[in-house]
Design a protein that fits this description.
The complex is a heterodimer of chains A (281) and B (238). By secondary structure, chain A is an alpha/beta fold. A six-stranded mixed beta sheet of chain A has the order 6-7-8-3-9-10, sandwiched between helices. A four-stranded antiparallel beta sheet of chain A has the order 2-1-4-5, with helices on one face. A three-stranded antiparallel beta sheet of chain A has the order 12-11-13, covered by helices on one side. Chain A contains nine helices and 13 strands. The two termini of chain A are 30 Å apart. Helices cover 30% and strands 28% of the residues of chain A. Helices cover 78% and strands 0% of the residues of chain B. Chain B has 238 residues and is mainly α. The longest helix of chain B is centred in the first third of the chain and has 29 residues. Chain B has one domain. The chains are: A alpha/beta (281), B mainly alpha (238). Chains A and B meet through loops of A and helix 1 and helix 5 of B.
């Protein structure tokens, strides 16, 4: 679906994206993770054909992104982090307008609004919508023309847990329909939950690329942390895979002296910091 | 073209909700009324007072020229404000990733505005013209003025990042029409300093019924539009 070969790009004389290579399969959810200014947005602009002055090759669904015509967008849906709706218009008016930009048959607005629970607010001005409603509507806008490829930029940013879960469910529904989804996010938990594979992007380059599970397993193993009393409270730890070899723990269990015990798996965030030496901001 | 038409219709819907911008569209009618009735009245007063045949009358072509330029300038100023509002709301970035595309967006905002402002400019000129310039020349000037109006809109949207800046830049872009004075008030080769401005050639055209100057004005304006459009499209991408 997407093949990136030797991609380089610069806004000035200083290189910004340097020699990037990766491939994304049809039907995958592929995550771009990285701190602000790492090059995620620039990469998304290249993939969506907004920036065409790059070197190398970026082929999306067989089309070189810098040579696309406007038909290219008939199969691409983009959901920006911020709302891109006409605030003075109602949700229905907005969706009718955006539908009219596509040559292909678009989905029925009432049906799609009902799918995300906004059917009773269809004739309300977007300016009167809550942030969660705007996010859902924005996402819906990207689906109007039933695209095969979706670009989602921070889709759960600023949402409460309920709306965030709703959004993630909607994304997984699209994956179930066989769509290829590119997800740009700061949220490692979302990436772990949603993405088939993720790329860590730092300073315009890919520092690691694999499934969240493989990245976690490759870089670290689960640990067991326990506390016990011996004159004062002490902390012990061992690898989960070597728990039977920890004699201190075995004795403590035998003597019922354990105060607390926790297993701790590394998170994608831990792996990101380990690989890149940076935290997400 | 379906997407361009849809987007243009959308702009009209937006304008219906903005009384201030609609008022601006009527400025040429107010200015035309003033030019057509007040200037000849003043001419009559001052020629009578000084006992001279004509004082302002030799510049009636210049007044006509201003009026013709004013109509597309106002229409395009309104379009520029809509563009800046949409830039503020990130709408342009979104529309650029739909089948409308970046060029389609510009066409829907400035191309379509040009198509309306051209006949509007002829209409205003036909109603309020003062000089005896022939209809063909006035129509040609209206065309050149329309193209220049697009330049003004592009200057505003390229040089500013929001509506407030756009209003300030809008005032500065009036300097783009300063070329109309050169053939009338600057003698010798010094006047060519302003020859990079299409308005200079428009003024030359109406002053001497020079159709070649009119053609140069339109071609020069086309060059300005090409350069500024590229700059604006680059701005959308970044």
């Amino acid at each position: 679906m997407l093949t990136v070969k030797n991609l380089s790009f610069s806004y000035s004389k200083k290189p910004f994206i340097t020699c990037m290579n990766f491939h994304v399969e049809r039907g995958e959810i592929f995550g771009f993770l990285g701190p602000s200014g790492a090059g995620k947005t620039t990469l998304q602009k290249i993939l969506t054909g907004l920036i065409t002055t790059y070197d190398g090759s970026v082929k999306l669904d067989g089309i070189e992104c810098k040579e696309h015509d406007n038909h290219f967008y008939e199969n691409i849906g983009v959901d920006f982090e911020y709302s891109t709706m006409y605030e003075k218009l109602t949700a229905r008016q907005n969706l009718e307008f955006f539908s009219s930009l596509y040559a292909k048959q678009t989905v029925k607005i009432d049906e799609i609004l009902a799918d995300i629970g906004l059917q009773n607010d269809a004739d309300k001005k977007v300016s009167d919508y809550s942030k969660g409603m705007k996010s859902r509507l924005n996402f819906l806008k990207a689906l109007l023309h039933d695209p095969n490829i979706l670009f989602l930029d921070e889709p759960t940013s600023g949402l409460d847990p309920a709306n965030s879960q709703l959004m993630k469910d909607m994304i997984l529904q699209q994956k179930a329909k066989g769509k290829t989804i590119f997800l740009t996010t700061h949220n490692m938990a979302d990436a772990t939950e949603l993405c088939d594979r993720v790329a860590f992007i730092v300073n315009g380059g890919i520092k690691a690329l694999d499934s969240p599970h493989n990245l976690i397993m490759r870089k670290g193993a689960a640990k067991v942390l326990y506390t016990y009393y011996d004159k004062h409270e002490r902390l012990g730890e061992c690898l989960l895979s070597q728990i039977s070899e920890d004699n201190v723990l075995a004795n403590l269990m035998k003597e019922n002296r354990i105060l607390s015990i926790h297993s701790s798996e590394p998170t994608l965030n831990d792996i990101f910091i380990e690989v890149t030496g940076r935290t997400l901001q | 073209m379906k997407a361009v038409y849809s987007c243009f219709s959308q702009m009209i819907q937006q304008l219906k909700q903005d009384a201030m911008l609609i008022m601006i569209v009527f400025v040429p009618l107010l200015a035309g009324t003033f030019f057509r009735f007040v200037i000849p009245f003043i001419e009559k007063l001052i020629t009578g007072y000084f006992g001279i045949d004509a004082i302002l009358a030799p510049y009636y072509e210049l007044v006509d020229l201003f009026l013709i330029i004013l109509t597309p300038s106002m229409f395009n100023y309104v379009a520029a404000m809509v563009i800046l509002e949409e830039a503020d709301d990130h709408m342009i970035s979104y529309l650029a990733v739909t089948p409308l595309g970046k060029t389609g967006y510009l066409l829907s905002r400035l191309g379509a505005t040009g198509l309306i402002s051209f006949p509007a400019s002829i209409f205003v000129s036909a109603l309020f013209h003062l000089s005896n310039a022939n209809v063909l020349m006035l129509t040609g000037i209206a065309l050149a003025g329309t193209v220049q109006g697009v330049i003004i809109a592009l200057l505003i949207v390229t040089l500013s990042t929001n509506k407030v800046e756009g209003m300030a830049v809008g005032k500065i872009t009036t300097l783009f029409t300063v070329g109309v004075f050169a053939p009338y008030f600057i003698t010798g080769k010094m006047q060519y300093i302003l020859s990079i401005l299409p308005s200079y050639w428009m003024s030359r055209a109406i002053q001497s019924s020079d159709y070649l100057a009119l053609l140069i004005s339109i071609l020069l304006a086309g060059l300005w539009i090409t350069l500024l459009s590229k700059k604006f499209i680059k701005k959308i991408a970044c």
